[in-house]
Design brief:
Radius of gyration: 47 Å
Distance between the termini: 92 Å
Number of helices: 35
Strand order of the largest sheet: 7-6-5-8-9
Strand content: 5-15%
Largest sheet: 5 strands, mixed
Shape: flat
Helix content: 55-70%
Length: 857
């Protein structure tokens, strides 16, 4: 027995020195030889019936070969199965030893490679642990009190992760571990990567697997995405040998640990330990939406302010510097353009959807213009009530690019655009009541104009020529018939060019106004293409700055630095300005343009209706006729100054050579006659004069001010019936009862009481009448808002311009803008601002010569 033990010990020591066999393998070999039987591990049986006492090295070699083949589980080395032993087994010891020695040389090279690979495997883990210790040591001076707490939290997190791993029961079985790993290796990895799991010889991440359940659902394609190979436990190694496979797994594990989505998943799981699932999900959704909401609100501010899209990156950087999380994407000028178009389209869909849902009557107004980028466009506005109890509103609908400016192209573009927004021909045939535009022949031509084509398609549509444009035509006709108006207009054109062409003259006039304590107002042209309100502002500026203008002309005529030509020019202007004729004409034009400006502005009111416009027109004609007989306030001041030969401290001269006096009575009578003729007659040639006048008479009965002193209970039944037929209102009898009730209510009111509101039964008819368009001033306002093009934005597409116009004209103020609704619809086809799949924008600070100076500042 002792000899047997000596041989065993000798062979064990020899094998240790030659192969560096681990101790557990030595114990196993010794146990096999001592039992002189066989050991069974799972499905593999190591048979040592022919192994002698001297062949313990062969037994160890056999065990190592079994381990390399993945058939031997060293954790269970106590699971022996004793078999019968015979004395014949000792006779084969020497032969088995020789066989073992022959295999040593071939296996030596392979074993050394395996041992080197196994020696390299812990390095990454050891390096990670070392970095953690260094970070912990660096944190100790800054947060000594919280170090122990953080360690406990990390230990608890690891224990929770291990518990989660054990609950999932993944990776405990030998067949689940990758072929290039052992159970011991897997347990070592688990110490540093608690989230590591394996199944069917593939790796996965327990944290990312659970993140698929608690991750924020955004309703679109920008949900927090986790790598599927990790969440579904499908990660495999690659490589032709075991060393390459081990290296590939180390790289993949480290890359996954440092990935953004894994770190985000770990943060989420940390929050999940403290909060319920419902609270966690809602907070995550709010946090993910919040950054995108901020980006949308910034884009909306840029559009409402008329700023270019290139402002978005700098605005984002400003908010990031202020401590706000603005995400990692949607920060470019392209994103700004795309978001603005999305917001405008969604707003337009909501508004048009409400229009279609309301079922009320609608009117359309259009105008054609050319943009700064030399594109012909058609602007479309709609006037409609958004509810049966709401007053009509006029709002911008769309801007359409025209390939040609003829009537056929404009008509086709209009109908195509309305159909694109859901306003079909069937809807128009029931609800389209009025079409309005300016007086261009392509719009209102009686033979082939756009209005004619619309009436042919929809016979009940009322065609309306804009009353503001008709007012301008009336004033132009009156000016042409009045003598002396050309000289007066020429003087103002000269003054306009004098101050707009020279900054020096403008500065000197400002100094003169400051000396006289007067406000320096802008002086423009009069009676030009602009509306009369603009002409009135110019007349008012000259009236108020009269002493300052005279002082500047006098100083300039005596300035030795000016040329003789300039001095003579200013001397001639002084003679005209101080002439009594000019002061007389100035007073007349001040009164006339003041009345006409107020009339024009009242017609431009968004809430102006046809009954109100007809009443204002009738009253304005009477006022002008009255002023022809009795001068206005400014004309009286001018007459007083002429008598005193002094106007606002400036001496006046009487030289008829310099100007011609305007006939006061003739001018005001001409204004009253032209306005009454143009504005009180047929607005379009698509209907006869009798039809138009009958329609206006029917509308007048809706205003109590037009009623006779004694009204019967059945007053205006015929007119109400004709109006209901024109507007295609089905509840005619109900409207009749409402009119009777309205008449009784007005009769019963006292003199001091206000006119009562119309009954509910009468409101459908009043609403339809108020939907009629009086003026296309909204189209002109839209073109004014369209002045967002600069030399650097001349290539802006029409659809982008339409989006900007809709937000500027229709969109609510920034304080009332709610981006959440538009973000949700955005996510149906786009990503969030903090989408981890997107590449984060890099802030590049360009080098500058002042960098040294900036460091000082």
């Amino acid at each position: 027995m002792w000899k047997y033990c000596q041989c065993l010990i000798f062979n064990i020591l020899h094998f240790i020195c030659a192969r560096h066999v681990p101790l557990v393998h030595i114990i196993l070999a010794a146990k096999i030889l001592l039992t002189r039987g066989s050991c069974t591990y799972h499905d593999h049986e190591i048979d040592v019936k022919s192994v002698s006492v001297n062949d313990s090295s062969a037994a160890c070699a056999s065990i190592m070969a079994s381990k390399r083949q993945g058939q031997l589980d060293l954790r269970d080395y106590f699971g022996f199965k004793r078999t019968k032993s015979t004395t014949e087994e000792d006779n084969h010891g020497e032969e088995a030893g020789r066989r073992a020695e022959e295999t040593r040389a071939g296996e030596g090279t392979e074993k050394r490679r395996e041992e080197e690979a196994e020696a390299e495997e812990p390095r990454a883990a050891e390096g990670t642990e070392k970095r953690r210790e260094e970070e912990a040591e660096a944190e100790e001076p800054r947060a000594a009190e919280g170090t122990e707490k953080r360690r406990e939290e990390e230990a608890e997190a690891r224990r929770d992760s291990v518990d989660d791993y054990e609950q999932n029961n993944q990776g405990d079985n030998e067949q689940d571990i990758p072929e290039c790993w052992t159970s011991t290796k897997f347990r070592e990895k688990k110490k540093y990567y608690p989230w590591l799991i394996c199944q069917s010889k593939k790796l996965g991440c327990l944290t990312c697997q659970k993140m698929k359940v608690v991750g924020p659902s955004t309703g679109g394609s920008s949900q927090l995405h986790i790598a599927e190979e990790w969440s579904n436990v499908k990660l495999t190694a690659y490589g032709t040998n075991r060393a390459a496979q081990l290296q590939s797994l180390r790289k993949k594990i480290h890359k996954h640990k440092m990935s953004d989505y894994h770190q985000a998943a770990e943060k989420t799981m940390e929050k999940a330990k403290e909060k319920t699932l419902e609270t966690l999900t809602s907070e995550m959704q709010r946090d993910h939406f919040l950054t995108t909401d901020r980006v949308f609100r910034t884009v909306y501010k840029i559009v409402k302010s008329g700023r270019p899209f290139t402002d978005l990156p700098s605005d984002i950087d400003l908010q990031v510097l202020n401590g706000l999380d603005m995400g990692r994407t949607l920060h470019s000028d392209y994103s700004c353009a795309t978001i603005s178009q999305h917001i405008a389209n969604e707003m337009r869909k909501r508004v048009v959807g409400k229009v279609l849902q309301s079922g009320t009557k609608l009117s359309v107004m259009i105008d054609e213009a050319t943009t700064d980028s030399k594109k012909s466009v058609l602007i479309i506005y709609i006037r409609v009530s958004l509810g049966m109890s709401e007053e009509p509103l006029t709002f911008f609908l769309d801007l359409v690019e025209l390939s040609a400016t003829n009537a056929g192209e404009i008509y086709q573009a209009l109908m195509k655009n309305l159909s694109h927004h859901g306003i079909s021909e069937a809807i128009l045939s029931e609800r389209f009541v009025c079409f309005a535009s300016d007086g261009a022949s392509v719009m209102l031509g009686s033979k082939a104009g756009v209005a004619t084509k619309i009436v042919e398609k929809f016979p009940n549509v009322m065609v309306w020529h804009c009353m503001n444009h008709r007012l301008e035509l009336s004033v132009g006709d009156a000016v042409e018939e009045t003598l002396g108006m050309n000289d007066f207009q020429f003087f103002f054109d000269k003054v306009y060019s004098l101050y707009h062409a020279s900054a020096k003259n403008r500065r000197e006039l400002t100094e003169c106004c400051e000396e006289l304590a007067l406000q320096c107002l802008n002086i423009g042209r009069i009676l030009s293409t602009r509306w009369v309100a603009s002409s009135y502002r110019t007349i008012k500026a000259v009236w108020q700055q009269y002493p300052a203008i005279h002082k500047h002309f006098s100083n300039a005529s005596l300035d030795p630095k000016r040329s003789s030509t300039e001095k003579c020019m200013f001397s001639g202007l002084i003679d005209r300005l101080s002439n009594v004729t000019f002061v007389h004409n100035l007073g007349i034009m001040y009164d006339a343009l003041e009345e006409l400006s107020e009339f024009s502005l009242s017609l431009q009111d968004r809430n102006m209706t046809l009954p109100k416009a007809v009443a204002i027109l009738s009253r304005q004609v009477r006022v002008l006729k009255s002023m022809a007989e009795q001068p206005g306030p400014a004309a009286e001041v001018a007459q007083t100054a002429i008598g005193l030969k002094l106007f606002k401290g400036v001496p006046l001269t009487n030289n008829l050579r310099h100007s011609r006096e305007i006939n006061h009575q003739h001018f005001f009578h001409a204004l009253a006659a032209k306005i009454e003729t143009r504005m009180g007659s047929l607005p379009g040639k698509q209907r006869s004069k009798e039809e138009y006048q009958s329609f206006l008479d029917n509308v007048k009965v809706l205003q109590p001010s037009n009623w006779p002193d004694v009204c019967g209970v059945r007053y205006a039944e015929k007119e109400i019936q004709e109006l209901c037929s024109f507007f295609k209102l089905d509840d005619g009898r109900q409207i009749q009862r409402g009119m009777r009730e309205y008449v009784d209510m007005v009769k019963l009111k006292t003199v001091d009481e206000m006119t009562p509101q119309a009954p509910e039964e009468l409101k459908p008819l009043l609403q339809a009448v108020n939907t009629l368009v009086i003026s296309t001033a909204e189209c002109e306002r839209g073109f004014s808002q369209m002045n967002i093009l600069t030399t650097t934005r001349s290539t802006l597409e029409v659809k982008s311009m339409s989006a900007l116009l809709f937000i500027k004209c229709v969109g609510p103020p920034l304080q009332m803008f709610k981006p959440e609704v538009y973000v949700k619809s955005w996510l149906q086809s786009h990503s969030l601002a903090n989408d981890l799949r997107a590449r984060a924008r890099k802030v590049v600070i360009k080098k500058h010569d002042y960098e040294t100076l900036w460091k000082i500042l």
